[in-house]
Amino acid sequence: MNALHRLLGAVLVASSLSLPAVAHADSTVTGPGGTTSGTYMDYMKTVYDRAGAPEITSLPLTEFDSEYKLNPMGAKSWSQSADGLTWTFKLQDGLVWSDGEPLTAEDYVFALQRAAKEGYDFNWYWSFAGGIKGWSDVTDKHADPSTLGIKAVDATTIEVTTDAPKSYFPGVASLWYPVPKHVVDKIGDDYALSVDTLVASGPFMVKSWEKSNNTMTLVKNPKYNGPWPAQIETLVLDTQIGPPEVGFPAFMAGEADWTTLNAGQVPVVQQQFPDGIRKNAVFALYYLAFDPEKAPFDNIHVRKAFQAAINRDELTSTVLKDTAVPAKSILAPSYPGYQQSIADKTVFDAKLAKEELAKAGYPDGKGFPPIEIWYREQGGYNAAIAAPMLQYLQAQFKDILGVDMGIKSMPTKDWTAALKARSNGLFLAPYEYDYLDPSNFYDLFKSGGRHHYAFPEYDKLVDAGDAGADWDKRLADYAKAEQVLTDNAALVPLVHPVTIAAVSDKLKGEGVTPNSKGFTPLDRLSGYLYTHVTKE
């Protein structure tokens, strides 16, 4: 069934009274694919232009499960030196590539050396989150990649040296995948462009790749002998059913085993087959980002006025119902390190907002200069959140503050360039986690980070939290750091997106079972989902 037929099939949804019976053989699972425009099937070559799901065909050193617990994968163990600067990873015994060649520590080291040398579009992650010693020297000053703080001690031992103690580094390593050096040495990066030359280190391997839209068929890797082996024989990742407007009709027609839902589809599923509903905390944050050096946001009272003028509870119970929850902290509820005590301090106070704007010299908004908020165009769950939320805020600021705010939509590339160049004083900024640790979010707002902030006390507290080994002490440092941002009204957390999906009753296993917090990560943790699912 093509995309047009799927869309036409949406009119039949309301008359369906039971969970769909998927028409594939029991050993085949079909799910939504990712981008249709990606090029390389290699996560360590490109993250933002990757094709398919190389994170399923590759074996990371570590990986998070549905309870957000870190598990050994390519590495069977790891240890930290007494000074906190060196991590030693020991690989699982007997790992092999799908072509039968041994998978060794050199393949992991080569992956990062190649990334640093060739302008990897995820370089910031290894510099900022990973803090690998010498990373910026290679990426910015063209030092030899061999000078990086990573080395293969022997075939099964990797040693990593960081610039500062990073207690959470094993979590960062969940995005460290090997690259087949023996293949790249022969044919170069083009190995990741063709099914004929791709080799896999993970539980699945690519059988077919439809280049026109990046739909892929994956099969169980017969050579794989690591943790989390595949329990299904075939996995089809169909990019055509990624958008819920197409995916849901396909699901109802029995052509997909699960699909994301948009807000209009949720009530239908809740009414007809509530047991098929799955909710996922995306662990992302939407926030107002001010440039505290640009007028009128160089006035702290202006920033505090905006900070107090947002009714998050009303926003998420009406305009963004079923798509987001209030963000009263940088971290989302259930995210590791979330602290209710921080969220409790965040309140909507229209009276205070008016008072702060008056202190800034703009009583009831009189004399306030024209402002415009810039946001980036995105698909997926972002498409259902950004525009309606901004329209709500636009009305809220006019009603409470007497301020007129324009709204400008921009392509992601232009938005990112504008943020970096400080071309505007107000942005709607989204950020989704890369690894499950508080540092992933708090590091974002350090000096030299995503924004042009400079709060030395904040940097000091976050650095202490990042380096600490005691969990409670780390959380205390992060709480103090977030208070610094709040006191300076540097940014305003708005909402944490959530996604809702429908899952066929033919799918069984931990991969589609809600965790202890009631969430089902699904493809956000695709390595776990597709290795912990069976089909009846």
UniProtKB/TrEMBL annotation:
Highest taxon of source: Bacteria
Annotated TM spans: none
GO MF term list: peptide transmembrane transporter activity
UniProt main location, coarse: periplasm
Solute-binding protein family domain mapped to chain residues: 70-449
PANTHER family linked to this entry: PERIPLASMIC BINDING COMPONENT OF ABC TRANSPORTER, PERIPLASMIC OLIGOPEPTIDE-BINDING PROTEIN-RELATED
Protein name: Peptide/nickel transport system substrate-binding protein
